[in-house]
Description:
CATH topology: Ribonucleotide Reductase, subunit A
Structural class: mainly alpha
Bound molecules: fe (ii) ion
Number of strands: 7
Radius of gyration: 23 Å
Distance between the termini: 33 Å
Strand order of the largest sheet: 2-1-7
Shape: globular
Amino acid sequence: MNLYERIPNNVNLSEDKKLQRALEKWLPNYLDWWNEMGPDGFQQKDVYLRTAISVEPDGWANFDFVKMPDYRWGIFLKPAEADAKIGFGDNYGQPVYQEVPGEFRNALRRIIVTQGDTEPASVEQQRELGKTCPSLYDLRNLFQVNVEEGRHLWAMVYLLQRYFGRDGRDEADALLERRSGNPDKPRILEAFNQPCDDWLNFFCFTMFTDRDGKYQLSALAESGFEPLARTCQFMLTEEAHHMFVGDTGINRVVKRTAQLMNQGDVRQLGGIPLDIIQRYINFWFSYSLDLFGGEISSNSADFFAAGLKGRYKEQDQYDDHLAADQIFTMKIVEDNQIKDSEVPLRNALNEVLRTEYVKDCEKGLARWNKSLADEELVARTSVGGEHRLKSMPRLFLPNSRFHRHVGEYAGHNFDLEGNLISQEDFEKRKGEWLPSVADREYVRSLMHPVIEPGKIANWIAPPATGIKGKPFEFEYVRL
Ligand SMILES: [Fe+2]
Ligand SMILES: [Fe+2]
């Protein structure tokens, strides 16, 4: 591990002068981008951050106070396995690719650019959030997510510059030029152009949109293109914390809302009503489903055949790594009706991955509903509480067909249960299902910074534990 080089890395950068020069040329542009588009107003503050100093299980998370621009962005790949073999597809069992297979060069570059584009995009989306943090603990978590997304950009840029020559260098530059939500030069994927300007959005984003990242990275972590696989494996360790921030963040909002429901009217008490939380879930879940791509996809078949992009836990979950003759049955819309359609499995792999993702999201919903049930119990057993709430509503995921902009269901309208409805009906009921301008304004009206150590905003419960054994009261950011 060359940690104290200008670009910390474990890829022997100093032995590849051409690559080193290219990355050192990119570095100041990256820092300019970070200073212009990274967290606004906090760049010179000391933040209690986790920094990767080794990719080994016991050493990759080193905690200390750091100013964000001094964070050790670097290039870390999980160590290579000897004699690694391609784990699926037509070349199953053959040695992994150390260079890009020529026929897949464009497709692979596209995958890496698309993944890479999401990393700076999310930093841009979240750039104003620090100013309205509900606590120093949350502020620190926001910045941890931000610096790691910055490092993930480095990971993708390393692949582009090392394996794709001039095209790769151009793409690396373009990654710093696009801007989230900018109509003239938008980010590639739509979820990454959506505003993320309040903390409920942030928690939904890290719960649902970062979780898409987990599934994309997992599918690539077993890629036959070995440098990509090793890059993604290490990124996944960091992504776990981002999803933790989202999952526990929503859980804390839900818990607080339930406590306020026990006391009276949530709005009057300054909390976020459950129906608004549900609409935010509907919004971010549906946009995140789009990120998996079309339900029926010849690209997914080609990538699988080539051994480049597999299924979730391909080695652990499946015995048949060829998936050549199997059929997958899915719902499609035909003649204005929902019908079953049989698709060759390899063409349905986006949907297979999406199904895994939905299962994972369901677990989050179960945790949040458990919090509602716990608070309901508190209401029932407390004196004077029983008359208020016999049962609280539960949160749920909308059907996967609801509010889609990509794939089989785009261009049709569905209700939350996935029933086909007319555009007119959708427009009429949209306000029940998706955040309205008034919802967003209301949530924003609650967002006032709480920056005293140990204090927390009224609309969210404190976390169960702090970071790295520190208490919640710890001064995670020195303002
Ligand atoms: Fe990331
Ligand atoms: Fe992330």
